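WP5 quarterly update. Target: Argininosuccinate synthase. Source organism: Bifidobacterium aerophilum. Length: 412 aa.
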Amino acid sequence: MSDNKRIVLAYSGGLDTSVAISYLKERTGKDVVAVSLDVGQGGESLETIKQRALACGAVESYVVDARDEFANEYCMLALKANAMYEGVYPLVSAISRPLISKHLVRAAHQFGADTISHGCTGKGNDQVRFEVSIASIDPTLKAISPIRDLSLTRDVEIAFAKEHKLPITQTEKSPYSIDQNVWGRAIETGFLEDPWNGPTKDCYAYTDDPAFPPVEDEVVIEFKQGIPVKIDGRDVTPLQAIEEMNRRAGAQGIGRIDLIEDRLVGIKSRELYEAPGAVALIAAHQELENCCLEREQHRIKRDIDKRWAELVYDAQWFSPAVRSLNAFIEETQQYVSGEIRMTLHGGRAVVTGRRSDSSLYDYKLATYDSGDTFDQKSSNGFIDIYGLPSRVAAARDVRFGNGIEVPDNTVE
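C-alpha cells (predicted):
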C-alpha cells in the first residue's frame, strides 16, 4: 500500500482510539499512523502509549512531549488575553486542540497520509476545533471521526476488541467524560447531565475541598511582559509556573467551575471545570494590567479579551481575526511587568499587593495627604467641558417640554 493511503489518528491510548486503529484499517483499507501528545494530562508514559498503538496495529507511532510548547505558545497567549469563555471558563480544551491539530498535520506530511481521524462525537465542540484547525493548516487533508462517521459505539468497540484479540485492558468505565491538560480539567456527562444534580467529590482531581482548606498560602508572582517568570523569587518557566500554581491553588480548592455553557454546535451543556493554576494566574495578571495599562487601552483590551475567548472557543485559533487580536494583545503587554502578591485560601485567590516599575499608579497623584501633586482646581474646567454636551442637550429638552421631571418632596 502506498504512503498516500494512510490515516493519521489522534491517539490517546484508551479503548476508543485503540480499537479505532484496526477498525479504521478494516473499514477504509488504509494503514493508520497513531499520534500522541503529552500536554500535561498525566497518566501513562508516551512510551507505553506508543507501544500499545503499535501492538493494536498502527504502522507508525508519532509521540511528542509537547508540555513546554503548550505552556509557552498556547497557555501564555490565553493568559495574556485573560481568556475566560462566558466570563468563567479558562479554555482548557479549546487551546489544546489547535496544538494537537498542528502535530496531526505535521505527522500527515511526514508519513504521507491524506486523511486525519479524531475520536470526537457529533455533538461536541472539539470535532469543529480539530477539523477547522486542520483545514486552516492544510485544506487538502480530509478528516473523519470513527464515532461520528463510522458508528463506532462502545458496545461495538468492546466486541471488536474481543474478536480481534486487541491488547487492551478494559477497566470500569468512568461515569464522566474527562479531558485534562496542564491548564485544567473538564468533566461532563453521566449524572451531571441533570443540571439540578450537585457535583460530588469524585468529580474532582485537581482541587481539594475548599470548605476544609489548609492554612492560607501567600505567593508572590513576578511577570515580565505578561508572562510569569518568578514565583516567590525563584525563576520558573511558563510550564513550571502553571504546575506550581496548580498544586498550591488546587490545595486551597481554587478554580472549581460549574456552569451551563453555550456550545458552538448550538446546544447548552452542563460542564464542570477545575483550573486552579489558570484561575490564580489570570487573576494576578489582570491585577497587574490594572496597574500598567492606560485607561482607554485597558477598556479596549477588556473587550478584546472577551472576543478572543469567544473566537478561540469557537475553533478560530488560526483565523485572521485571532491573529489580528493577538497583535494588539501582544503590544499591550510591553509594560505588564512587576510583582503581584496573592493570598490563596478556601477557594479564593485574593490579590493583596502590587509592585511594578512600569505601573501608571502615581502615589503623589493618588494621595489625599501632604505631597499631593494633583491640581484639584483643574477639575472645575474639566467638569465644565466634560458636561457641556449634557447641558446643551438638557437646554433643548427644556425648550421642547421634555426636561427631566424632578419629584417634589416638599412637606406641607
